[in-house]
Specification:
The chain is of the alpha/beta class. The chain contains 4 helices and 6 strands, in the order βαββαβαβαβ.
Length: about 180
């Protein structure tokens, strides 16, 4: 399969890309190089350096027949998100909407989105998918909004998707 990974230089994107390459898949990676390490990029990845806040249609036009998009790109700003709301929403919501729109416009079979367990708010982990989503900061709200956009895009346009909720451990746990 031909798989596009946004945030290919991040921890999840990079390791997932190598895993898929080792299993014979073609991987296209997109990242703006604001985090992660370009030196760690597997040479087998066809790489696009670009900020998806400004769009991603060019990648879909250049790379014909993409089967799956795995959207791991984000600015993980949970602690800062309430103080940098514009930056948070641009780099998380607007960037993700650009990915979703491109997936719809280019008939992508499936979009896999990495969300966060922070969408549950102050709950009692382990969380269950049936638990109420109750974000308590702007980062979590952005992730929830993207999840809502995916549901709407499925109902309106038939975009198939999966949501993976990553576990975020606050830094104070390790102090």
């Amino acid at each position: 399969m031909k798989i596009l990974i946004t945030g290919i230089l991040g921890l999840i994107g990079n390791h997932l890309g190598r895993h898929l390459l080792d299993r014979g898949h073609e991987v296209i990676g997109v990242d703006d190089c604001s985090g992660g390490y370009l030196d760690y990029l597997d040479s087998r990845v066809k790489f696009y350096k670009q900020n998806i806040v400004f769009g991603i249609d060019n990648v879909f036009r250049d790379e014909k027949d993409i089967d799956i998009v795995i959207h791991t790109a984000a600015y993980a700003s949970e602690g800062l998100s309430d103080y940098i709301k514009n930056y948070n929403y641009q780099n998380n919501v607007i960037a993700s909407v650009n990915v979703i729109n491109s997936c719809v416009n280019f008939n992508i079979k499936k979009l896999i989105f990495t969300s966060s367990m922070s969408v549950y708010g102050v709950g009692n982990p382990p969380f269950d998918e049936s638990d109420v989503l109750d974000p308590i900061d702007s980062y979590a709200l952005a992730k929830k909004l993207i999840e809502d956009e995916l549901r709407i895009s499925y109902h309106k346009f038939g975009l198939c998707y999966s949501i993976i909720r990553n576990i975020v451990v606050p830094s104070h746990v390790f102090q």
